């Protein structure tokens, strides 16, 4: 049984202010309407989305909605009233034997949890809608004066999406003969349909006034922070000195009276950085991805390993936040070539150079590095979800 969302956005929203209808004004990187639509196109139980707009807003759709969104919705012109607009959307439903969720396009912060609760309730009731119980004291008044109080018991603040069995809500709209209804629950109840109340959410704001944009922007920022996935990994590598006239460190050939011994080009710094990225992904190390027993990697440039680690991170939805590499040796001196090393690593990883740190330290003549038997490297990598 298919589930379709009808997003109604044909109104003008003049109380929200601004030069554009409120549904096309922005909250963060997206306009109000795109955020509303994304809640449904990204939901695993929603099969299709119908968008109802004012016929004069067709150009605004192209200007303010992404191509991704426009590819995934069916657009239909609305009518002179909300009810007429909803009926236009219902007429486009691909399956009248399914279910439909009717949502105000001016509610950009609707959550997957609300959508889930409405869908679940429709398993054993013809209609379901989110709402919040009224908790504030209620007054009756006129001309700025309080005339009395109103009992709040049993009163709820209605939200959307409001869900129904498609054939039943189409029939309810067809037989409704009252004035333009406040919402689809009113039309459903006029037809005798039972509507269940499910738990709404205070964050499911309907943008009505100018201040509502700032409230939604703050909520969106909180969501982004909660959804941000940051991973930290570290890598450590050692290579002994051997005969040679240079060492390759972090992608730069540095003149020296010795070389570094290794199955590949023995770039100890780049190996540490690569292992730090693998570590942040919890995906082993260079030896697992490029076994030293495999002859094809004999003398291979370590750039191959680093590029593989960066691509693996990207394929899994992460970008490089920053890299910090420390080379531990008495000689050669790293300071004069550290900037070139940073540039080489940044180029290979496809990041800005200010996200890459390369520095050096000695071990105060202690241990194998102090005896100038080899070079060690320690690196940290931060990965941030895209």
From TrEMBL:
**Alphabetical keyword list:** Isoprene biosynthesis, Lyase, Metal-binding, Multifunctional enzyme, Nucleotidyltransferase, Transferase
Mark the transmembrane ranges. Answer: none
E.C. no:
2.7.7.60, 4.6.1.12
List every stretch annotated 2-C-methyl-D-erythritol 4-phosphate cytidylyltransferase: 1-230
In this UniProt entry, which residues are annotated as the site Transition state stabilizer?
15, 22, 263, 362
Instruction: Give start and end of each 2-C-methyl-D-erythritol 2,4-cyclodiphosphate synthase domain.
Output: 230-383
Among Pfam families, the record links this protein to:
IspD, YgbB
Top-level division of the source organism's lineage? Bacteria
The Gene Ontology biological process annotation of the record reads: isopentenyl diphosphate biosynthetic process, methylerythritol 4-phosphate pathway; terpenoid biosynthetic process
Please give the family membership noted in the entry: Belongs to the IspD/TarI cytidylyltransferase family. IspD subfamily. Belongs to the IspF family.
The protein's name is: Bifunctional enzyme IspD/IspF
